[in-house]
Write a structure and sequence with these properties.
7 strands
Amino acid sequence: MNQSTNKGTALITGASSGIGATYAQRLAKRGYDLLLVARDQQRLDGLAENLRQASGVKVEVLRADLTDSADLQRVEQRLRTDPSISMLVNNAGVAINGTLAEADAAKVNTLIQLNIVALTHLSAAAAASFGTAGRGSIINIASVVALIPEMFNAVYSASKAYVLSLTQTMQAEVSSLGVRVQAVLPGVTRTEIWERSGMDASVLPAEMIMEVGDMVDAALAGFDQGELVTIPSLPDAADWQALVTARTKLGPNLSRNQAAARYS
């Protein structure tokens, strides 16, 4: 049974499977109506019907390929004009395998369009709409590779670093308007992204791979606790705070009118 009937609608991208579908299930239980966005109409319809029966919330599906400018614009416009939408979960994303020098240019463009451009457009639309309403939440799914880019390939890691940076900046821009933002940094999560990108997750140690339900539950717990950045597998939040403190300490010396003496 859902907890409430007045939480508004959560728009979830990449909602047909994996992390997106799990967010849909969890948010339905919390009482959110749902607007599910993905490319796979059949999967969307099946998930929507299951969620209606299980939770009793309203579920709408919107088939869209967010790498297509017309489809992206439709979703963006919906965010700007539908006052019932109170949460955006920017989950849609892809990964590619291999080094930058080896990368297929078309696949790189698709990744940038989905992981960066689409997420940015939708975040902007949600920030504008939610800011005007004085309420709303934006959850951006990044990755721990934003913090350890050397561990993965350049394009994917850089795209997730962008998501983290964008979310941190948005916090400074929209928090005073009553809008909440969260960046979720999962580690390796058992989803279809591995197979789709040509990578084999089975070669990784089992202790590195988190089940998708556990990951989303931890992310939502972090959301409930008011975290700006949630790293589901990090045992001690003080480790993240230490990194933030070290970065902040750099601040006064990052822009001065003279080069550091060590460069003289």
